[in-house]
DNA sequence: GAAAATAAAATTGTGCACAATATAATGGTG
DNA sequence: CACCATTATATTGTGCACAATTTTATTTTC
């Protein structure tokens, strides 16, 4: 029992640590764009497809309205997105990028590379990591 | 640029997702013990060494006082730990386990297995994952 | 077509993370 | 021994996560 309850025996603690470390590595670069990591994720989803509902964004990022509603309001306050109720179904809130939000994509383009560099991870390790993490993520759906 | 800013191209998003997924898998089991995942981490540190300062716990978990102080107060409120200033140096707060805190170790013993089972990860994938994640974590210190 | 079921967001409340600052105690240094 | 730097924790404020509930709109069913 002792052994299994040791921090070094756990697999989740390193993942939790790495996740935080990576997000912290993003911080200085994203601060230049005046956004946070979760906000960056939402913008990435929108850069791929300009118009999306709160639900669609939530499904892609596994985030619920309790997280997204205030986050989206902050992005709106920064004039990066617009929130508006769909005419044909007033329950749905549609999110679109503003010109500012679209323009930010250019500035964000260099971020992933910079972060990889800051973390000091090789492309090979990155691929390894991605492969195994994705495998485990999919297995446990 | 487009390619690099796609969610599926990122390595950090899967890690962030997996971290959250694992913590969520812990949730039902830890709820039975009436603790959260970060509280569980702190208790694990204490189960390995009964007396530790706030600083020592923070170094092991990479958490600062802004996170730990309120968390430790909650653990104290649950009567799982004691917080007391060190006599010889009043700046230091020493954390010790109460009998309740010690006793909880028995109940927590089965948790890691249950979580691995819940996630559906094989022992082999777990070892793979741990190896590569730890490698990247250490490289980027 | 009204009542019930369903669906989409929003709200509320708790608990991390983390930056920035504050408070208080200790340890040099001149 | 007074001053200053350092150390340890606490506090404040912002922004996620997430459970639980609420609100409002739509769809289904009788």
Question: Keyphrases for this structure?
Answer:
homodimer, 141 residues, alpha+beta, Arc Repressor Mutant, subunit A, 3-stranded antiparallel sheet, 7 helices, DNA-binding
Oligomeric assembly: homodimer
Report the top-level CATH class of the domain at 16-111 in chain A.
Mainly Alpha
What's the total helix number of chain A? 7
**Helix-strand makeup class of chain A:** alpha+beta
Taken as a percent bin, the fraction of beta residues of chain A is: 5-15%
Question: How do the helices and strands line up, and which of them pair or pack?
Answer:
The structure is a homodimer of 141-residue chains.
Chain A: H1 12-32, H2 37-48, E1 52-53, H3 54-61, H4 65-77, E2 81-86, E3 89-97, H5 99-108, H6 111-119, H7 123-139
Antiparallel strand pairs in A: 1-3, 2-3
Helix pairs in contact in A: 1-6
Chain A binds a DNA duplex (30 and 30 nucleotides) through residues 20, 23-24, 27, 36-39, 53-55, 63-71, 74, 85, 89-93.
């Amino acid at each position: 029992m002792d052994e299994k309850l040791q921090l070094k025996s756990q697999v989740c603690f390193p993942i939790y640590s790495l996740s935080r470390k990576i997000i912290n590595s993003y911080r200085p670069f994203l601060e230049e764009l005046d956004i946070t990591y979760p906000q960056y994720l939402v913008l990435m989803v929108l850069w791929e497809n300009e118009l999306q509902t709160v639900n669609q964004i939530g499904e892609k990022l596994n985030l619920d309205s309790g997280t997204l509603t205030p986050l989206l309001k902050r992005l709106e306050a920064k004039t990066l997105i617009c929130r508006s109720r769909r005419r044909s179904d007033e329950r749905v809130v549609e999110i679109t990028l503003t010109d500012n939000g679209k323009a930010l994509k250019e500035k964000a383009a260099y971020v992933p590379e910079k972060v990889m560099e800051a973390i000091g991870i090789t492309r090979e390790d990155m691929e390894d990591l991605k492969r195994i993490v994705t495998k485990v993520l999919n297995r446990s759906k």
